[in-house]
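Internal ticket #5521
Category: modeling
Description: The requester needs a full-assembly model to guide mutagenesis choices. All entity lines are attached below as received. Residue total reported by intake: 1258.
Assigned to: D.W.
Attached entities:
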Amino acid sequence: MSMSSTPVGSGRRGPSALSNSLSPKVLGQAALAAVGKLDPRKLVGNPVIFTTEIVAVLSTVSAVVAVASGQAAGFAIQLALWLWATVLFANLAESVAEGRGKAAADSLRASRVTTKAKLIIDPKTGTIVPTPAHKLGIGEIVLVEAGDVVPADGEIIEGIASVNEAAITGESAPVIRESGGDRSAVTGGTTVVSDWIKVRITSAPGDTFLDRMIAMVEGAERRKTPNEIALAVLLAGLTLIFLIAVVTLLGLGAYSGVKLDPLVLGALFICLIPTTIGGLLSAIGIAGMDRLLKVNVLATSGRAVEAAGDVDTLLLDKTGTITFGNRMATEVISAPGVLPEAALRATLMASLGDETPEGRSIVDLARDKGLTLQAPEGATLIAFSAMTRQSGLDVGGKSWRKGAVDAVLKTLSLSPDQVPAELSAAVDRIARSGGTPLAVSEDGALMGVIHLKDVVKPGVKERFADLRRMGLRTVMITGDNPVTAAAIASEAGVDDFLAEATPEDKLRLIREEQAKGRLVAMCGDGANDAPALAQSDVGVAMQTGAQAAREAGNMVDLDSDPTKLIEIVEVGKQMLITRGALTTFSVANDVAKYFAIIPAIFVAGLPALGALNVMHLTSPQSAILSAVIFNAVIIVMLIPLALRGVTYRAIGAGKLLSRNLAIYGLGGLVAPFIGIKLVDMLVTALGLA
Amino acid sequence: MNWQGWAEIALTLALIVGLGWPIGIYLARVWRGDSTWLDPVLKPVEAAIYAACGVKPEKGQNWLGYAGAFLGFSAASFVVLYLILRFQDLLPLNPQGFAGLAPHLAFNTAISFVTNTNWQSYVPETTVSTFSQMAGLTSHNFLSAAAGMAVAAALARAFAANRGENLGDFWVDLTRISLYVLLPISFVIAIVFVGLGMPQTLAAHIDATTLEGAKQTISLYPTASQEAIKQLGTNGGGVFNANSAHPFENPNAITNLIEIVIMNALSFGCVIAFGRVAFAKAEARALVAVMTILLSLGAAGIYAAEVQPAPAQVAAHAAPGPNMEGKEVRFGAPSTAIWTAATTGASDGGVNSMHDSLMPLGGGIALFLIQLGEIIPGGVGSGLYGMVVMALIAVFVAGLMVGRTPEYLGKKVEAREVKFAMLAVLILPTAILGFSAVAAVLPAALAGLLNHGPHGLSEIVYAYSSAAGNNGSAFAGLTANAPYWDTTLGIAMILGRFAYAIPVLAIAGALAAKPKLAPTSGSFPTDGPLFIGLLIGVVLIMGGLQFFPALALGPIVEHFQVLQAVAGH
């Protein structure tokens, strides 16, 4: 097994210090930390391993007594050492998992602001007082200029700047941040590369995004997730059952005339209790968060990661997730009696004031057709707005407009039946094909229709088919009209769509799904997405998004890539699968351990029970020692699996279950028979027992 | 072993499951409060009972209310039954003139019948008056069975609920199950039994003169009516010490077949009814399959063990043949095997052979069937809820492997359910192994033991398994009517019944409050062969892990000793 962990994502670079390998340094620190975790106060939260430590202490005492009284103590000493090794290996699993996060946290910490912030104490005069970043309060306003580090999380109230967010996202290309709108949030620790901004501080010192990120990565704020608690209850219950089974052997054995060594009973007990999963449980949880971090998603709690595995419905924004963000102009259809060149020219004129990607794609289309124009002197550019849903240009009494068909018709005071039949047919055809028709007018006359096409991303359809097999329903959210939405929905293969969606519609849809008992995941970046993000069970906010959205979600995607939702669900599932697989393996292992130890402890008094020694282990002592060694070593052998996670395959629950049951259930039954036999051969060869 | 033997076992199993189906469909109607064809006769009676007892059938109870009613009813029943047994000499219908029972025996017996165990530390025909038998013991054969089925009904409703808390009304369930299910079916079976030659009389005994001219006093009882509910309600307490090996309790092959079938049919019926009430018919069929497969394995194992010659036969170089010690010659090995598996799997406890005389492996399988938690198919109602607890554990562990928080029948399985499920599961090893380990070293307990060595240990472990599993069959070889045994076995019965049923009701309360989720293709499938295999594995591994050491020191070591002894001859 390789010690590296495979990121779920497509090789995106995580925060700088997140290495994929376990370096010797990390391992060394983890080993030290594992020893530190022997402190019973730290272990008490893990009942199985805590119990193991108690038995290790008792067996050590018994070994010491044996040595002191001059008895042959070699066997007792070995047993005690292996019991301690069991505890240490379990601790090691946890500290290795934590260690990888710590390395990342250290590098994050280095980017924390130590320089002084420029606090504006009087907004009118703009008087600036240099103030240490950790003394900034919520609501205070600071000036951040080119070269400065943003001192704390905040909202830009004035200015525009390009900001390097590599400290948070690992992405070194600067992004634009400006006041107003959904790109007004800045994060402490990022650097302004050009221009200046005035920032109102929105987080208290020590509670900035960076601080929380460090805490999450380090696992300092790690709380047990609901499923982890349930599993811990099950493991504690099993531990109690085995305690009863082993302690009562004292009475049953005494009746049968077998003298049982308490040390051996302790060894049997430790072999039976689920030390494998008990030792790896917290490592699995930490590694799950870690895997998310590797794909550049930061979860605010393990609970959110777990919920991700349970998600039933995915709400996906059409734009950017299902289709490429920008619709592209692909053709201009001229109105009857209008020359194609005239229509193209009108289209270009109307789009000169449109800085949206769609508007620019029209300019590109015109250029491809050999037409380039500059806005005439004194022209009034009318930018596209969501309110008017059109853009245009007015100059010298002439006017051009371009925009949503109904909006343009309204401006022209035309009713739909006044539109020439050829144009109406073109509009319908475009809409039915999933495109967006835009109408173009010049001086109050319809000139033609632009075909904006929404291109579905390659591979998306296959991804949704996978999701369906995983049991997830995908719902496409779009502001498009129902006809357009339906065309794209069928092209992309989503299960359902919500057309002409407002933020309120989104919220209502989430509530409806939840009322049916479904868990909903969505991603969003706008401030108006915040209520829906808060309502959803897994809300992924984009790092580039509004501060309100980032606060409302329970995960932040540092790459601001909405397709991440799918990877997040897979990481959640993988974490649950790993837990189940190792629990099953751990419990199934007990069968072989019984067959090793029961004949060994009774064969002296009841020779007939030697028949149960199906593994033909050399001697009672070698059998017991082999079982204990196997029990300890298996934890170490499974650490890489716990950290990497059991591979998730979108093959449907039934197939997945039979596959995992075969590997971890049947495998768990068979593997220890082989493993204990091998250890026994080794123990015998080395003359240890 | 021969094909006739296997055919007999297979036919009996087919009849059991086949009869369970229509009973379950009918039982579901009774649980839901739907109309039945007995309404014209019984509806007025039901209404009169509610009016007299002040029950408001529409109101319903949450899990605490339901559990409180169940506990309160059982406690009151215990007190009344204890007093009847203790002072039967002062009560009417005591033609035999029996004295009141000793305090420890009255305690043990009252607990035994209230918990649907029907362990009998006494010899019935020389201890219990006709009044005690009819008013005391027989009435609890009905009521304790009805109470167990009521808890199962509450659990079924919990799975059907969507964010609710109403589990139904315990008093209504108790009344309807007794009135519409247990009484009419027992009535019909009792008539059939009378027709097949069972006595049904209030006379105490008849005096007979044997061929040798000796005078013999043969006890009589209203046997047929008791026999019907004894099996139907998985009670198992006979009116004769020899139980269904006695010719009055089991006159011929046909009564033998009927008794085997009805002691399992209603338990299977509870599963079918559960599926209908919880909207999970396919999943209930999977549970039936699990029970049927395990029961078949048990019967086959016992049959295979019992056709071996007994060690004593080998030692005496007698003609080889099946081990007939302790078996009714009329019934033979196959019928003994299927009966033994059925009675130990079903928490019935009635016997048609002496389990103490089974081969070590045959007795070991019977013991293990009890230790699996009385879920194959278990007691009426209790078998179903025991199996559902195992299913919850199976789903919780393995269900994670499909990458979702585990769900069973549309309900998420979370910390609370796991906690109570583990609490319930813990009871059996605690009561069985705990009491056995103490008894195995306590002189006061060992004094009652007739055998020593592994067989003696099997007797001890069997007694506590039978008590904690609310089975009631005895391995015998143990003089249990002594203060120590009566008291500890009584406590084991209380634990096995209430420390299991109360967590089950707590689970029901927690499940009812959850939303009922619709299954998706990502959900854990709980109705196919995969789940059946998984649940069988979980039941066997969980049971095996708990009891393997104890079994190793009892039947397993005895088995190897017998093999070695046989090899030595």
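Resolution: model delivered.
Comment from assignee: Chain B touches chain A through 68 residues (CB under 8 Å).
Ticket closed.
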